[in-house]
Amino acid sequence: MDFELSDDQVALGDAARELLDGYAAPSQVRAVVDGGGGLDAALWAAMVEQGWLGVAVPEAMGGLGLGWVELAVLLEQTGAHVAPAPFATQVVAIDALVRAGAAADDPGGAVAEARASLIAGAAVAVAPWRTVVATPSGPGWTLTGRTEPALWAPRARWAVVRAVDATDPSGDGVLVGDESLYLVDLEAAGLVPPREPAMDLTRELGWLTFDSTPAVGLGGADLVASFLDAGAVAHACELLGGASTVMDLAVAYAKERKQFGQPIGAFQAVKHRCADMLVDVEGMRSAALYAAWCLAADDDDRSVAASTAKTWCSDAGVRVAKSALQVHGGIGFTWECDVHLYLKRSQLDAISFGDAAFHRARLGDLLRHRLLAGHSVI
Q1: What's the pLDDT score for residue 265?
Q2: pTM for this prediction
């Protein structure tokens, strides 16, 4: 079995790195951050022009017909450059809309409209992972509840939302409905959440508060599982890219910074910390790329692999960024050092789409069901 990326995938990564070196160099990211943060319009336009949003979309739907491994290659680079653009959120929403296909309860064609506009980059999507409550309303649904502070919510036109059906057949006040996935037209609903203050200024955050907000049903439990898998893998890959870059920054600094007449990298304590960072990064790479392959192949292990990747990358990504800060010493705490951009980004990515604790619990539930069904967990 070949565990290496193909030549085409390596070339895609090289092309992505070259593009982001041009549009998301440290000086350009800092210009966005110093200006208050948020979306870099020129960068977003370049990514859209290159067809990145359609990489894993079937050709029949206007995409390139590739897959999640190719998406993982791109997501690693957006993480490596702390790119101020909603690429990860957008591809997760697009994946859900592609898998939903033509929703049966979508007479107005909102699903097809949303999918086309998101692939074309004409609109931005938000994809919160916490559940709200869905209530039947005529031929459709309404949503009520508040999500977590969601990435890019202040700029989004569409929201792909996970909700529990408010069905109460016994009348005892206990909701027994299953989780499903829904599409909300935020513009039509008049929902433009304000931007919330955040440490990570390379992205925008906002609360989504639904109050009997009209929604279109996309699918049930299987689609919800795929949605969680895609979100977990997307953020794991971004964490991988950020950790790899911040490790390289720390190693380069350890070679240049001198104390007592020699580079600090010659000291055993610094060597051990750098070695630990490498172990973490390589573990992240294996977990994230395997999970991406499972999504691409629709493998039976996809949910287990996705939660494993998010669990490991959430912990390891923050750990690597903190170690890089320690290697830099006092300079690492200053605004002029790029390490803080990666540390803040990793802390937000670590809790986006479920933190390590959530995914450990999900893993336990997945493996418990396997055991109860008489299957091996290995």
Answers
A1: 83
A2: 0.94
